[in-house]
Amino acid sequence: MIEAYQPIPCAQHERLEFSILRRLGLELEYGKDGVVRREQIRPLDVNTRDGAEWLKFQDADGVVQEIRLDAIQYFQELPA
Question: Which of 7, 27, 52, 56 could lock 45 by a disulfide, CB 3.0 to 4.6 Å apart?
Answer without folding.
Answer: 56
